[in-house]
Design brief:
About 55% of the residues lie in helices and about 15% in strands. The chain contains 17 helices and 16 strands. Helix 12 packs antiparallel against helix 13 and helix 13 runs parallel beside helix 15. By secondary structure, it is α+β, with helices and mostly antiparallel strands. The strands form six sheets. The chain has a four-stranded antiparallel beta sheet, with helices on one face. The protein has four domains: about 200 residues, Multidrug efflux transporter AcrB transmembrane domain (Multidrug efflux transporter AcrB transmembrane fold, Up-down Bundle), CATH 1.20.1640.10; about 90 residues, 2-Layer Sandwich (Alpha-Beta Plaits), CATH 3.30.70; about 60 residues, Multidrug efflux transporter AcrB TolC docking domain, DN and DC subdomains (2-Layer Sandwich); about 55 residues.
Amino acid sequence: MGFSTIFIRRPIATSLLMAGLLLLGILGYRKLPVSALPEIDAPSLVVTTQYPGANATTMASLVTTPLERQFGQISGLELMTSDSSAGLSTIILQFSMDRDIDIAAQDVQAAIRQATLPSSLPYQPVYNRVNPADAAIVTLKLTSDTRPLRDVNNYADSILAQRLSQVQGVGLVSIAGNVRPAVRIQVNPAQLSNMGLTLEQLRSALTQANVNAPKGSLNGKTQSYSIGTNDQLASAAEYRDTIISYKNGRPVRLSDVAEVVDGVENDQLAAWADGKPAVLLEVRRQPGANIVQTVERIRAILPQLQGVLPADVHLEIFNDRTETIRASVHEVQFTLILTIGLVVAVIFVFLRRLWATIIPSVAVPLSLAGTFAVMAFAGMSLDNLSLMALVVATGFVVDDAIVMIENIVRYIEQGKSGKEAAEIGARQIGFTVLSLTISLVAVFLPLLLMPGVTGRLFHEFAWVLSIAVVLSMLISLTLTPMMCAYLLKPDALPEGEDAHERAAAAGKQNLWTRTVGLYEHSLDWVLGHQRLTLAVAGGALVLTVLLYVLIPKGLLPEQDTGLITGVVQADQ
């Protein structure tokens, strides 16, 4: 008794098994995350250090170089790049694919503590789990028609950025047009010189006047009082009256040597949204985080974030990268549905039987459904490459069923019953179907063995295609012969049919005969002109090689995301 015979003799169990496979596929499809491409990000960290007032050379020698010496000793580090500019050092660390990003982050933190950095460094280096090559997955804009932009920025910096950073999958929230409030002191050099003061003396006096330190306590016999005073200066008006020195017994105030105004930290930064000044929050994902799911989580908390803001401060989505991703995936999904329809139509044209068309067509949705179930279990995503693999597999999954049906129909036409023909035909063709499947899977095996980022990118493509082909083999050895045994009948036309049905059948047969005759005539011509045929084939081969050399090459095709980014860089 062959493998297929078990399923032929148990049609109810076979049907329930396939129904279960279909149900698992539907559940798996609903759980599959959507993304543009498989997650292939290498574990990477970005370390940034701010040192206001330092030029690029100072940043490189005092900050970047000591950090690089420590980072270079971390195991699993494959690539380290750095950039030193005025007041800012950026170091990008990329680790091997098998490196745990959490452990790597701990090693980076330890290396930062061991680095010899300037004691006057106002901010310690910070690291973020983000791929610097990634664009922002979503950009939010914060605007107000009544409040100054520095107040709006305070909400973005102290509330929104922190809440967004806590969302699962978010790696970094950066603020564009960051206008943090600050007091700007514009010193008059002539007046400062007349008072006999220098800039360093002025800086030292302001530092001593602007402190918030414990003042101690007053202790009595029965009570103790804490001295609670705050010497911090918060506005330009408070700075103006600050005494910075004495001359001829009279106090010299800051307003005597400088103009003090309320302003922003960096008046060279600005951002606009829809032609209006705004504060933009650019959200980047962690390496390996699903873009669509992360943006959905951000969208889910937007009403909560708007609720903690004043009524005259408005939070909106300015740019959503997932819109183009969803459109691209939906386009491939439509292509998949269209491909299935075309495959079924071609099967009907050539097999010319209703049930002979339905039986192999059932293998297509079942194979795809089973593939969805395995994809969900394996943690894959519904992306352009996995969907394209399913599009390619659609043409393969019906091959096994067609081969099986053709062999079974041959025995039915010889007069055997459907059940007997199915058992004999399936037993004969089973090894052939297995061989076809193994040969197809072997074609995609090299993709599974490719190293590096390219290999990781196409691993999912090869797995999805191989899974679909293997499932189609199992379906062709189980469900297909079972359906043939109970649904296929001899193709004789009953005597009771009317003339119209006989004429339609004769017309189909005549069309089929003419098609076969055209093919035979073309084959005779080719065999009669063998040298010309070989010359055309050789020319096509040469042209193919030439086009392969000339055609532009790249890892992925360019996509229109509907976004234009312009970058202007000037000398510092």
